[in-house]
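C-alpha cells in:
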C-alpha cells in the first residue's frame, strides 16, 4: 500500500476568512485521496483556532530570542544576507549601515514543530509591508528557514498584491502562487525562474479579503463541471449568456469562433422561460447550432439563474449586454460582440464590432489561459520532490 505524502499549510492571524476557511476544507477533502493536507497554526495566532476548527489545526509553539548589541546585531544580519546585492551593486548588508548598524537589535524566532513523516512541502502566505504584522513576518521568515533546514520546498501564495516595490519576501519561497496576472508577470520578470504560477479566476477569487459565497459556489461548480465534462487543464473556457431572442446573432458569433474550436469549451446559458413552441432553449441550441458545435472541443449547458457558474470561464462573451454580463464584468473579463455599436472599453468589459477584433481577443484569452494552474496541480508537484523524511 502506497503511503500518502503530507503537505503543511501554515495559517496565521489575519490570513483567513470564513470563505477561505470553507474553501480550504473543500480542498482538503478534494485531495484526501492523494495527499494529507495538514493545517498548522503558531501559538501566536491562537485567536483563529475556534474559527478554523473544521480544518483540525495543529498548534505549535515558538520562542523568540533578542540580541541587543548593535555591532553583534549587524554581523548577524550581514551573515544572514550573505553577499546578495541590489542591481546597482550595493549589497543588502551595506544598506544596514544607513540604519545605525541595523537598528541595534536582532530577533530570532524558532519554531517548535515535530515534523510529520512523509512531509513533502510547506505552503504559507507571503506577507506585505502594508498588510502584515511584525509577528506574521517573523513567523514567515522563520518557517522558511526551518523548511530549508529540513530540506522541504516552500510555496508562498498571494493574498494582498505582490506586484509592488517590496520583492524580498517574495524571493524567499521556492515558488509563488499568484492570483492576478500583474503579479505573475512582475515576479516572473523579477525572479527569473519558472516556479511562479497563476491561479484560474475561480480559485484566485477565493484568496481575497472580500470573497463571498458567490465565489465559493463558483469554485465548487468549476470543480464539478470540469470533472463532469472531462475538461483538460489546457482548454480555454468561454461562457455565452445565450438568449432565444438572439439565436441568429449567437450563431454568427459561434461561426466566427469555429477556427479556434478545438481549443475551446463553450458554457451555454439556458433558462426555463426561454422556449419557442414545443422546444426548450437547450433543444433549440442543439438543433440550430448542430454543425457549429461539432467544431468545438466540448460544450455544456448552465442554468442562467446560477450565475456563479460563470466563474469557471476565462471570459464571458455575449452578443449584447444583459443580466449575466452585468455580473460578469465585476468578476470576469467580459467581451460583447455587436457589429451595430461603436467599440467601447470600461473596466473589464470590452465591446467590439469586427470579426478580426473578436478573434484577436479570444486568441489572447487562449494564450493567457496557458499560464494558469489549479492549486491541486501545484500541490501535486510537491509530492514529486525528494524529502529527507521519505
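Residues out:
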Amino acid at each position: 500500500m502506497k503511503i500518502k505524502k503530507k503537505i503543511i499549510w501554515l495559517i496565521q492571524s489575519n490570513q483567513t476568512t470564513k470563505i477561505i476557511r470553507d474553501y480550504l476544507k473543500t480542498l482538503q477533502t478534494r485531495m484526501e485521496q492523494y495527499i494529507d493536507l495538514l493545517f498548522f497554526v503558531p501559538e501566536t495566532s491562537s485567536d483563529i483556532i475556534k474559527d478554523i476548527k473544521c480544518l483540525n489545526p495543529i498548534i505549535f509553539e515558538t520562542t523568540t530570542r533578542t540580541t541587543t548589541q548593535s555591532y553583534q546585531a549587524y554581523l548577524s544580519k550581514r551573515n544572514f544576507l550573505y553577499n546578495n546585492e541590489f542591481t546597482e551593486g550595493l549589497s543588502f548588508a551595506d544598506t544596514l549601515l544607513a540604519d545605525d548598524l541595523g537598528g541595534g537589535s536582532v530577533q530570532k524566532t524558532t519554531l517548535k514543530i515535530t515534523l510529520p513523516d512523509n512531509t513533502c512541502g510547506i505552503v504559507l502566505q507571503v506577507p506585505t509591508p502594508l498588510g502584515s504584522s511584525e509577528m506574521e513576518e517573523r513567523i514567515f521568515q522563520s518557517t522558511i528557514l526551518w523548511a530549508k533546514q529540513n530540506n522541504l520546498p516552500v510555496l508562498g501564495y498571494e493574498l494582498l498584491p505582490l506586484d509592488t516595490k517590496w520583492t524580498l519576501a517574495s524571493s524567499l519561497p521556492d515558488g509563488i502562487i499568484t492570483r492576478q496576472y500583474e503579479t505573475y508577470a512582475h515576479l516572473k520578470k523579477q525572479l527569473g525562474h519558472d516556479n511562479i504560477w497563476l491561479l484560474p479566476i475561480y480559485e484566485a477569487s477565493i484568496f481575497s479579503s472580500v470573497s463571498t459565497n458567490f465565489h465559493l459556489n463558483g469554485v465548487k461548480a468549476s470543480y464539478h463541471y470540469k470533472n463532469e465534462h472531462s475538461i483538460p487543464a489546457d482548454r480555454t473556457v468561454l461562457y455565452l449568456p445565450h438568449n432565444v431572442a438572439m439565436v441568429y446573432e449567437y450563431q454568427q458569433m459561434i461561426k466566427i469562433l469555429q477556427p479556434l474550436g478545438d481549443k475551446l469549451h463553450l458554457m451555454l446559458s439556458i433558462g426555463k422561460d426561454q422556449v419557442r413552441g414545443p422546444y426548450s432553449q437547450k433543444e433549440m441550441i442543439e438543433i440550430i447550432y448542430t454543425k457549429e458545435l461539432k467544431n468545438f472541443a466540448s460544450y455544456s449547458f448552465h442554468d442562467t439563474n446560477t450565475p456563479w457558474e460563470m466563474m469557471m470561464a476565462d471570459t464571458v462573451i455575449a452578443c449584447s449586454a444583459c443580466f449575466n454580463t452585468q455580473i460578469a464584468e465585476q468578476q470576469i473579463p467580459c467581451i460583447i460582440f455587436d457589429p451595430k455599436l461603436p467599440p467601447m472599453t470600461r473596466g473589464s468589459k470590452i465591446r467590439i464590432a469586427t470579426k478580426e477584433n473578436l478573434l484577436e481577443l479570444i486568441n489572447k484569452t487562449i494564450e493567457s489561459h496557458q499560464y494558469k494552474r489549479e492549486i491541486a496541480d501545484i500541490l501535486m508537484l510537491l509530492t514529486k520532490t525528494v524529502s529527507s523524511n521519505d
